[in-house]
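check this one:
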Amino acid sequence: MTSRVRGLLVLALPLLLSGCSSAGYYSQLATGQWNLLQAREPVSKVIVDPRRPTVLREQLAKAQAARSFASEHLHLPDNQSYRLYADLKRQYVVWNVFATPAYSLDPVTHCFPIAGCVAYRGYYSQGAARGEAALQHQQGMDVFVSGVEAYSTLGWFDDPILNGMLNWGDERLATLIFHELAHQQFYVKDDTEFNESFASFVEQEGTRQWRVEQGLPPSDGSHVQQREQFITLVLDTRQRLKTLYAQPLPAAEMQQRKTAAFERMRRDYRQLRDEQWAGNPRYDAWVNGPLNNAKLLPFGLYDQWVPAFSALFKHVGGDWPSFYAEVEQLGKLPPEQRKAALYKWAER
């Protein structure tokens, strides 16, 4: 395939994935994805190259063991994804811009014919993301910009291990691989909660089995427990804000109560941290930074249906192919029926 044809395919991807948008946005998507593809190289070559840093080679070798485990034991797609490596010379591959009205938790959504509607807009340049955030802020929106270490192209391309994925340790890299391959395994258009909860379950159960395979003891659970407690804290705040925004209050009073709700979350977090986490500051930076509606949006998307998928996995006796077949049947249901079925599984 010629370089020109490859370039046209990459240019076509944003057109396939995106709805109405500006030519500038399409251009940065195409350029960013093309640069990522051009930066890829086989992990196998990096591992045996003595000119490359020893730490990098060791990390990638461990990642390949996890990648093989994903296909051989978790029955995730067996392709070239995560058997390639790309150093983008930056920590994040994209920056997502989330936005909501000042007194609403409904996100500004962006819809794509294949990927469906999502609650953010992605940029390959931090500067471009900040520019979009500034424009949204000028329109009175609450805005949050979040860097992302990895994403899935849902099988359109062979996704590489990115340099930013290597910063969180060997096990976290394995979990990222499991999570992103799960998106390739199955994806439902216009249902972020379903997709992310499914991938999160595969990540969590896959990591548990991966630890057994490595002869490691079970995780003590403190990390997961703290994460779940923090998510609950954020979701409780979101619910209080939702109730607040439904009231017919003057703007000044609404803003005052909104500020008070975020201050309450900060106080509750510090109490939780000091009394139950022995002062562990893992979420201090997030809590002490600016807080607004948009910053709360990502929470809950990744976890809502994890208990349902866990119950379904147990129902099929922990057999991955049977589990994926059941998940596919759920995905074929109309949205309301799918949600009702997930509620029933979660109750188990």
Remarks:
- Strands lie at 40-42, 84-86, 94-101, 110-112, 116-118, 121-123, 141-148, 161-162.
